[in-house]
Amino acid sequence: MSWARHLLIPEAKNDMQRELHFTANYNLGLGLHPARWRLIDNPAQFLDVNAHIEVAQIAEKAGFDAVFLSDFQSLPMEPPVEPWHALDPLLALSAIAARTESVGLIATVSTTFSEPYELARKLSSLDHISGGRAAWNIVTSYLPEAGWNFGMDLPTHDERYDRAEEFVSVAKALWASWGDGALLLDQAGGTFVDWKKVSHLNHVGMHFKVRGPLQVPTSPQGKPILVQAGSSEVGLSFGARHADLIYSLQTNLEAAQAGYRRTKDAVRKAGRDPDRTLFMPGIYPVVGSTEEEALRKVERLDALRDLAADARWFGIRLGVPLGGEDLDKPAPTRAQADFTPAVSTGISESTWQMIERRPGATLREILLSSQGRNRFIAGTPEKVADEIELWFRSGAADGFNVSATHFPDGFSSFTESVIPILQRRGIFRSEYRHSTLRGNLGLGE
Question: Is 231 annotated as a binding residue?
Answer without folding.
Answer: yes
